[in-house]
Amino acid sequence: MEIQTSETFSEVTPRQPVSLTTPEASTSPPVSFPKSKSGIQIPKNPKYRLLISLGVLVFVLLILSVIVPSRKSTSPRTLPTPTLFVQPTAPAVNNIELPSELKNSFTQIESRLNEVIIPALPPEIDLKIGKF
Amino acid sequence: MLRPAILLICFLFLPLSVRAQDIATASAPAPTESVARLPTPTPDLVAQYFTDLSFQQNQYQKDYLDYVAKSKVHTTYRTITTQKERLDATRLVLITRNNLLKTYLMYLRVLLAKHSGSSPTETERLQIELSKWEAYFDEQNSIVTSLNNESDITVWSADFAQKYITVQQLLYTTLVQHEINQRTEVTAMLQSLTNQIQNSGKINSDIQWFSDLPIKFDLVAQSLSKSAATSVTRQNNPTRFYNFYPDAKLELNKAKNYLAQIATDLKVIVIKNWR
What we know:
The complex is a heterodimer of chains A (132) and B (275).
Chain A: H1 6-11, H2 23-27, H3 46-72, H4 74-78, H5 92-95, H6 100-114
Chain B: H1 2-27, H2 31-37, H3 45-77, H4 80-113, H5 120-146, H6 150-198, H7 208-233, H8 245-273
Helix pairs in contact in B: 3-4, 4-5, 4-6, 5-6, 6-7, 6-8, 7-8
């Protein structure tokens, strides 16, 4: 296999620049940009240009600032108010037609099982007090 | 030209941030609303003694800190005045400590009465013991007041430390007994409920679940007797208190779990087979 050298590259004829315009167009006078339909013209004065770009920036930021917090605030709005309006799920026993005595017994037993039996353990005291 | 534009930006952003705060605060519920709706509980004797206990605990904490401070001052300066101040602070904290322990004994005595029906003899015995120690602490307060020198206080403190082993034994035994009483009461309730369900005629009594229940009741009884035994057997060393409460608590928790299982089993029986 033959490796291409720089000489072989030099043999390649360089491309001629392609003109995009047709020969007729090149002869015609330069075309000026038409005015927009709404009639808005960008002023040539750089101060006004800066002011307009700032205005556009403010407008965009304004829209963004409206959209972003509204998205963030959706989650707390949809959250339910804690404990006040939460309905406890009824135990399955209550859904069956049982005598009230039985139902009461079940409720009593449940409350007894869950009650705090010892609210306070013996106090921790220092027995070294007074041992001089 | 730039300055008005920056001011305009600031002006436009200011109300939005305020509105965002409003939304956040509006979504939060008013805390006082839920508190206001809670029913006020009627104070019972246990609650009253518990309040007294909290008060005595705070008092002891305060006097103890004072005693520590006075002791430090005396260690630094060693004057007659600082010694007298330390002596006064010691007497005061000893009295407060006695009051605290007496209040706790009273609290236990009342607490024990709550479920005394399941083992009245043992409960009564413990209540009498507690009363005796209450009187002891009352008596000690008058003795401490009359102690005028440090050597007498040292002797008294050493004697008290020895007696406190017995007091601790009693305190934890009472706690264990109280829990045993409560579990026994729940066991009795569950047994009665089981009988009620079996005799209702609305459930087929041949189902497998009923045969499992006695085994679980036996396990409850076993755990309760084990927890009662820990308070008796573990005190080998008379000069040092061995805290048997964690071991007893382990058995008591086991008993509680068995009871919860029995309650669940009964529920399942009723839900599946009630006609």
